[in-house]
Every structure is written in C-alpha cells, then in structure tokens.
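Problem 12. The chain below contains 150 residues. Write out its predicted structure in token notation.
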Amino acid sequence: MRTIILPFFLLFACYATAQDIPDPDFREKRLAAHDTMVLDSVSINSSFFEVFLKNGHPLDSTAYDIDYGNAVFSFRESKTALTDTLIFKYRVYPQFLTQRYFLFDRDKIVESTGNAQKAYALSNDRDVRDFTPFEGLQTSGSIVRGITVG
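Solution.
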C-alpha cells in the first residue's frame, strides 16, 4: 500500500509546484518617494494597481493620483516627508496591446524639399493580362445536378 501512496503524493507535489508560473505582466517595484514618479514605459491596468508604504501598509487612494495610460504616479499634496520608499504592485497590459502600429515606418519618411520636377516613381511597363476563368474551355451537352430521395 505504501508503494502506491508514496509515488502518488510525490507526483501530486510536483504537479502542484508546476502550477506556480510567474505572470510576466505582473510587476512589483520599490521606488524612492518623489512628488511625481514614472512607474513604467507601458500602460498600467487600472484593475490591478496597489501602493504600499515601506512597512507594508496600503497607501490611501485619496492621497495620490495615477495616470494609468502613461504610468505616472503623483501625490495630491506633498507627502514625501511621510515615507521614503513606496512599493508598487501592478499589472501592465500585454505588449501587443501597448505596441504602436503604423501604416508606414516613420524612420523612412523624408521631409519634402518642394522640388516637384525631380520627383519620380518606379513603374512597371509590363502588360498585365486580365484573368478569365475557364478560358478556352469547350463544352458540349448539358450539366445536370439532381437530388434523389429514397
């Protein structure tokens, strides 16, 4: 009986610890207190944001303002004398949601010089044929579709 139960509990322990995968979007930072602090370079999820003092007590939400889109934390009044370190626990949006998408690469766009006579464009002078489906197909007779029941 022991030979059956012992491997079962060992496998269960391995399975339970395998579930502790860290979340890459969850972040915890300790920062020195200033009037205005930039927490991150991407937007912060407003549902998962907490501020703690150095001793672990939560900071009252009426004491600060937070710009979630720019991840900027600021005190409403100068409270930096109350604490020297703040602990921020927050979750950021995934990278594909905060990435900036452009139709054209802005690094490759050059300024206009105003000289329109020297403007040129690459062109393809090949004659493009229109595609006609079933071109050259010759049929005789009739094509019948039927439904049979029974």
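Discussion. The radius of gyration is 33 Å. Students who got a different answer should revisit the alignment rule from Section 12.3.
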